[in-house]
């Protein structure tokens, strides 16, 4: 299972659509470009593919000509990020990246102020919005903090290990999604929104080239939303086992434990300590794979059912409806309409 199949809560798409309404963008165009429809958007429990969410964000960027999605005190014209990226790709190390990134945005846009500070062993990259009320759903702060972590991580060719992230707003209703976005504890109601990591990482050299950046920018923001979800150690190892499995229907905790050189009792105990459970993890993998496959019109519902190890399409339909509240054909029909 490739990383592109990790799903994203519809909650974020709904927030983007809220931003589109505030900007008076054509809702039908946004939904069509993302391969979504109103019924899907109204299902609070639905999950969509990173590709769908990326296309929705690109549509808002294009129609609004604003990379801050209408949530900044000042519009950030489309292409500003690319100009910044083409400057910082020539940096010597991570410290230089964060310094240049901060200086660039502080000069070209008054919507936010960025700063890098080293306090003892900690590097603190902070962001403060000039008008937080323009970001009522906290979407801009979450998206930009994700970007300030993942783009520099891509530049140095390794994930920046975070100690914690902090937000200057209350914990959101979709709190569990932050575990998928950031590989560390998240703190809320803090004085400032920031990334905190080991200052030693600032010496890491860049490994990406201007040529690689051109490809990266063409794919943006897709690559920023398709990093593997971050989980505790045994949860991650079980997910790795499930994603490698050629027959998910026959994947069991006993087989997983055997591969991990544990007893199934020990594996159950370790998963429970991490707040996980084998069947829930298995269902999540199947759900995300199903969402991905159903967005690809070349695969029939019957074939998706077979690939995921269901005995018959009706069993898959029941499971999919239990996972998402929707029928598989809803995804298939929307994908075909978009084509």
UniProtKB/TrEMBL annotation:
It comes from the Bacteria. Transmembrane segments: none annotated. SMART domains: HTH_ARAC. One of its GO terms (cellular component) is cytosol. Keywords: DNA-binding, Transcription, Transcription regulation. Residues 236-334 form the HTH araC/xylS-type domain. One of its GO terms (molecular function) is DNA-binding transcription factor activity. InterPro entries: AraC-type_N (IPR032687), Homeodomain-like_sf (IPR009057), HTH_AraC (IPR018060). It holds the Pfam family HTH_18. The keyword Transcription applies. The keyword Transcription applies. PANTHER family: HTH-TYPE TRANSCRIPTIONAL REGULATOR GADX (PTHR47894), HTH-TYPE TRANSCRIPTIONAL REGULATOR VQSM (PTHR47894:SF1). This is AraC family transcriptional regulator. It comes from Pseudomonas laurentiana.
């Amino acid at each position: 299972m490739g990383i592109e199949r990790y799903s994203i809560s519809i909650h974020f798409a709904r927030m983007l659509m809220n931003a589109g309404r505030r900007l008076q963008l054509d809702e039908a165009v946004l939904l069509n470009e993302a391969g979504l429809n109103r019924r899907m958007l109204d299902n609070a429990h639905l999950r969509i593919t990173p590709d769908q969410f990326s296309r929705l964000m690109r549509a808002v960027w294009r129609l609004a000509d604003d990379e801050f999605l209408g949530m900044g005190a000042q519009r950030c014209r489309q292409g500003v990020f690319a100009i910044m990226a083409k400057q910082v790709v020539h940096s010597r190390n991570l410290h230089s990246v964060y310094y240049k990134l901060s200086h660039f945005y502080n000069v070209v846009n008054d919507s936010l102020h960025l700063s890098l500070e080293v306090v003892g062993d900690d590097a603190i990259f902070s962001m403060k919005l000039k008008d937080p009320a323009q970001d009522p759903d906290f979407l801009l702060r979450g998206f930009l903090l994700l970007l300030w972590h993942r783009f520099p991580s891509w530049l140095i060719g390794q994930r920046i290990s975070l100690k914690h992230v902090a937000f200057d707003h209350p914990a959101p209703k979709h709190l569990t999604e932050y575990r998928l976005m950031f590989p560390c504890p998240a703190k809320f109601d803090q004085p400032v929104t920031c990334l905190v990591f080991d200052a030693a990482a600032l010496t890491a050299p860049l490994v990406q080239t201007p040529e690689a950046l051109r490809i990266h920018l063409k794919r943006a923001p897709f690559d920023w939303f398709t990093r593997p979800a971050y989980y505790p150690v045994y949860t991650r190892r079980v997910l790795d086992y499930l994603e490698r499995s050629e027959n998910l229907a026959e994947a069991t905790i006993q087989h997983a434990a055997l591969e991990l050189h544990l007893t199934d009792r020990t594996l159950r105990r370790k998963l429970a300590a991490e707040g996980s459970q084998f069947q829930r993890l298995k269902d999540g993998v199947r759900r995300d794979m199903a969402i991905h496959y159903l967005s690809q019109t070349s695969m029939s519902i019957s074939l998706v059912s077979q690939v995921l190890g269901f005995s018959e399409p009706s069993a898959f339909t029941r499971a999919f409806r239990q996972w998402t509240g929707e029928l598989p054909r809803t995804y298939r029909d929307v994908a075909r309409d978009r084509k």
